[in-house]
Amino acid sequence: MHWLEPLVEIGGTGFGPATPDDIAAILVGTSLKAIGKIADHPFIALQQRLSFARAGLTRPLSLADYARTGGWAGLKRARAIGANRLLAEVLQSGLRGRGGAGFPAGTKWQTVANAPASTKYVVCNADEGDSGTFADRMMMEGDPFQLIEGMAIAGLAVGAGQGYIYVRSEYPRAIAKLRDAISFATEHIAPFRIELRVGAGAYVCGEETSLLNSIEGKRGEVRVKPPLPALEGLFGCPTVVNNVLTLAAIPHILAEGGASLYDSLGIERSRGTMPIQLAGNIRHGGLFETAFGISLRELIYDIGGGTFSGRPVKAVQVGGPLGSYIHPSQFDLPFGYEAYSQADALIGHGGVVVFDDTADMGAMARFAFQFCAAESCGKCTPCRIGSTRGVELIDRIRARPSTASGRVGAVESFPQMHNARKVPSTRSDDLTLLEDLCETMRDASLCALGGFTPYPVRSALRNWPEDFGPDFAR
Amino acid sequence: MSEGAVAIPVRPSACTPASGAGQRTIPIEALNASASNGIACSVMMPRPVDLEDSVTGLSLSDSLTHASEIGAISSYQVVDGLEVVARLNLPHGRHEPIMEHARRRLGDSSCGICGIESVELALRPLPVLQTHSKVRPEHIRRGLAAMGGAKMLVSLTAAAHAAAFCCEEGALVALRGDAMPWVSAPAVEHVDGL
After folding, report:
1. A106 exposed, middle or buried (CB, 10 Å; 0-12, 13-18, 19+)?
2. Chain A residue whose CA is closest to B17
3. Check: complex ipTM more than 0.95
């Protein structure tokens, strides 16, 4: 509900966006900024809040508030039923990793639980780096104990005594809240312990193996998989690496009947609720938690109110800077892992960024490569070199009309470039080369940074070819 | 500008748009096949300006011949003008080892080491030198320091190796901004026994 902030709440009634000058009128009940009961506001009333049920209603660092609203019940029950039943319930819930890859959480936990090792770890990935995403931050700032409880349950399930939360340094308030929450919760989660680690701004450290390297004090560089972190993760020990939202969903699943409730929501193999983040050029942005299955049309027009600029929506990028650009003709796509995957898109961490008709999609395709070049860890060639070649290629395609031929590049004319073509390339040649580059990056990159960069590029080219040159033929 | 290298305009970074145009120097290299007595010996990628050194150096480091036996090296361009074949004629007595070298080769072309069938053969024990003086660490350091000041192509392009022949005390005898064998050629006139 960002457009209503600063939002004043008195006895459940909201006033926003409020300024100091509004205070007198708010107190005597004559303010024109009254929005009625917040709980009845369409942006809240239409949500199905499980993970964020408490956020905004309780004091985030109050153990009393947390316990009064059902806190620690999941952990208590988990201790009572034991690791095996606990694992079975997480599997039954159908919970999938909310970080982006959507790997079934129960399966990952089972792998770690079965791995023979005396030391195991639970790592929470709170390096929320995708554009237009803020759900992890809202969870850590609004209901940190829930995340801590989820981690303690994960520790119980897999036999880990130690957990780490890796938070990005750009979240100072979340870091401060977590520090306090961890210290307040010590007795509740003991013997499980949690430590906080703060990142230093690298996007790639949101990738689980880079993140593990970073926690270990090494360069934030991707590791080759296998071995999976579930078998050889932090300090070489079996490790559960889950996103904030995945772990925060756990206490609900472990509550009495929670797993079947969770499984009853959603579509296909996308079960439960997803905290969707509406951002970019949108009138009513904010966090909207709902069951899987909602369409982009509902999200953007009914809930989001269209663009902030009032202009027509041109494109929506779902799943962060490396997600596909979705054309308005696809807005009936139901929000879920399978449906998006079939449409050559991804839901990622649930970030939805809206663009109006002034957006230059050719420039956005170039930006995807540019972003990859800036953030690449440099370990694998497709990502490190491919991203830079991609920027050059898009520039070349956009710089000249389809009919005129280009010139042979200085490098291509060198004798050592034995296999490079020695005649000028046409736009069609460059498009074939771009497709080839995208395929190489998708299939041969070590991690999703290089592997997903082709999504925004290809979708922009497919849906808005006219943005790649004035005479571009579809 | 170093001989055998050209400067081209480049974008210094793909991720910082405002960084403006820059320049980078690239060594010019070309495919070179060398043939001794009509038998193809190697295919390498030297700089054309180093062609004679590369062919001579490779023949010496592969123990195919003695420096004094290498006569004139003729070279001519093939097909599209991008590849060069270099030919040298060695005395009759050198023919047999070259044939043997070629016969044991697994592929159609090779650099010095590819003519050897396995890593074990490549790393076989070599004859022990009976007479040589001990090289001291400070001599190696002196040699490296001398190279650092002289390796023009490497510092200019950051895209080439450098190899040097040094005397026992570490003073530079010859330096080439490319692969190891190349440097044997200019070192010949200074080092006995090559």
Report:
1. buried
2. A370
3. no
